Amino acid sequence: MPLPFTPRYCAWCGGALVSTQGLNPSGPPFYCSACGLPVYEDPKVAAAVIVHSSQGVLLLRRAQKDGAHGKWILPGGHVDRGEVVPSAAQREVVEETGLLVELTSLLGVYSYQGNPWVLVVYTATANGGRLSAGPEALEIRAFAPEELPWDELGYESTAQALKDYLALNP
Ligand SMILES: [Zn+2]
Question: How far is the CA of 31 from the centre of ligand 1 (A)?
């Protein structure tokens, strides 16, 4: 999920941003040419959940028309600014699958060089709601470990989280 743009204008005064060309790796990547504000590009935080049951792990087929369209991903999404991360994970699961879940563990934190996203993955079991695909899913189903669609997963982090989950739950 790379960000498709670099910032061009100052969010404070609207002045044009100037790149520092990475000359000072510990400094900001941009300065505002008008007010001098240093501008950093912060990471983006997302949360996803491995919802497991006797039928297996719940995956959904992504409806959004981007690079992962039609691929299988974990339910999850953006953490809003000021939102508690586990609450965001539970919110995303109910929005995308209709299920209320109880988080059972923090599985891992996944990030990649040059990629702005930091993904926090929990495991969970369903404790209410009714399974139904939200607008962001073409399809939802549970996969037993031997059925997991390794060649059709949406993101590197999806595959890594599933491998980590299976290593802990053989
Ligand atoms: Zn400015």
Answer: 8
- pLDDT (tens, 9 = 90+) of the chain, 170 residues, equals 445 578 899 999 999 999 988 788 788 889 999 999 999 888 999 999 999 999 999 999 998 888 889 999 999 999 999 999 999 999 999 999 999 999 999 999 999 998 889 999 999 999 999 999 888 889 999 999 999 999 999 999 999 999 999 999 87
Q: Across the strands, what pairs with 143?
A: 57
Catalytic residue among 139, 147, 152, 156: 139
Delimiting residues of CATH 3.90.79.10 domain(s) in the chain: 44-168
Q: What span, in angstroms and rounded, lies between the C-alpha atoms of 5 and 35?
A: 22
Cα(45) to centroid of ligand 1, in Å? Answer: 26
The verdict on whether 139 is a catalytic residue reads yes
Arch. (CATH architecture) of 44-168: Alpha-Beta Complex (3.90)
Distance 83 CA to ligand 1 centre (A): 28
How far is ligand 1, taken at its centre, from the CA of residue 38, in Å?
Answer: 9
Q: What is the pTM of this model?
A: 0.87
